[in-house]
Amino acid sequence: MQTTFPRLLLQHAAERPNAPAMREKEYGIWQAHSWASLATLVEQIACGLHQAGLQRGEHMVVIGANRPRLYATMLAAQSLGAVPIPLYQDAVGAECIFPITNADVRFAIVEDQEQVDKLLEIRDRCPDLGHIIFDDPRGLRNYEEPGLMWLDQLITAGQAFAASQPGWFKAEVARADPGDVAAMFFTSGTTGNPKGVVHTHNSLLDSARAGAEFDRLTSSEEVLAYMPLAWIGQNIFSYAQWLACGYVVNCPESASTVTIDLKEIGPTYYFAPPRVFEGLLTTVMIRMEDAGHIKRGMFKFFMAVAKRVGPHSMNGQPVGFADGLLYRLGNVLVYGPLRNTLGFSRVRVAYTAGEAIGPDLFTFYRSIGINLKQLYGSTETAVFVCLQPDNQARADTVGIPIKGVQIKVADNGEILVKSAGLLKEYYKNPAATAEVLTADGWYHTSDAGFLDASGHLKIIDRVKDVGRIKGGANDGAMFAPKYVENKLKFFPFIKEVVAYGDGREKVCVFINIDFDAVGNWAERRNLPYAGYTDLAQKPEVYGLVQECVEKVNADLSADALLAGSQISRFLILHKELDADDGELTRTNKVRRGFIGDKYQPLIDALYGGKSEQFIETVVKFEDGRSGSVSATLKISDAKTFKPVRAAA
Hints:
It is built from 22 helices and 28 strands. With 648 residues, the protein is α/β, with parallel strands linked by helices.
């Protein structure tokens, strides 16, 4: 049945008014909002926005963390036929200018003083931005900017309007068509200005329902909403599927309390990018290294059992009696307490996406009884394209096409997708729309991959990034930088990698170490260091990283397609790559071209055969100040291996 988000809200409020719709942790206490109270709040905000002048078809930006009142404002805007545009709350003011001006935004709903200050700073460059409405009034008492209003004031005005015209709100909700635009999400803009991805109620709800049907989601699920609202994945899991299924969305108190809140809520349905799962595992391993001898020995023994037995058990395959008995004992002594420590004691379905996840990391979580799976999708496809069935979760694929999705592979290896969940268009960008949407409805994903014999999709890299080695012993060999980068990032000591090699005779990489993991490793070896830059350049750390690089080379040598992508030289960067410095997108994807231009002297040194190179880099601090970081970076050669196919 085709419907809209506000209609689903009213349906839940009518059918189970007292059931919890959302919870918010405030001052350490979880506060519940029922479907009925949420529907009332949405009506009041919608009436207030109407009186303030928000028109059908207009755009309204929403900036802040996951908060019930921000979710309510999105629903209120959709109730009026307006279009919410969530923006990243950690983006600097300059990054907000293009979305606001491109979408002719007059209204902004923001969380707190930080976001108000950001918009006031750029207001002179956003001439249409006339209304800034804030949720949290702390620190804003003496602000007297025109058009600045507390959300409570808007709600009070809306209450009076709703009381005087009791049928108006429902009539407005009924006016909306499922094919109307429901939301717009701006892409990361890795190669230019961001693009506004336009989605309808139909496209978002079709994708949300297909995913819910695939994993048998019900109204009894518990979800923790902690990723940025501006990321479409958060919107699908905590907004579209929330309204489609009617489950409970829980909003953590702050970014710093997410781990605690995760344990308190015990979600049944969970999503996180690989870096979150990596961070959780790194924390566990650091704690185990610091544990006593007996506890550490028991952990290692039962984790060996889990690695041998757990994946078979999760996939419904038979295991031997003795192994089964040991696994059940391990579940009591190690796996169960570990799941509880991680906050995954009740997880029924957990997903990861965005980047490839390391096979060891993937196996670890499934080994201890967490149903971790991979999915494939994008902003333009409303997330869900491929999902992994419960008994077919593999580290090297992203699953099978879900209901309503068709996939085909073009001659150049590009994945093409057709489904009801595709974007309507790129806003004000017909040329870009025509590039990705064919006349017969196929979407060009720009990802290179193939369907294996079992119908599972494998992704290699971005089509535009797949290149060729030129010259040398591997002349003409395929080079897939993202594939190489991900294989290195599978090691807990490595946080980010940037690989170069297209059009060159060998592959060289920049590496960011994981400061926590390597720092703990150094401390256990009584290796002193003064900070990231100092630690990164220690000879012992270079030795540690070199082991990781050469293990990757050994793996690549056995791959017929990518044996020529082995890493010849590497260096460890003197600073962590940062979105505030333009090196990463707000979704933490490396901007390879930008980094290459910024660190051109380092690339020249890698390919010029130098053993070290001085570099000085301007950085931005959290308080907005600028400074510089300099160091003389070591450059190391790595052992490469003869391709296995040549030896056969």
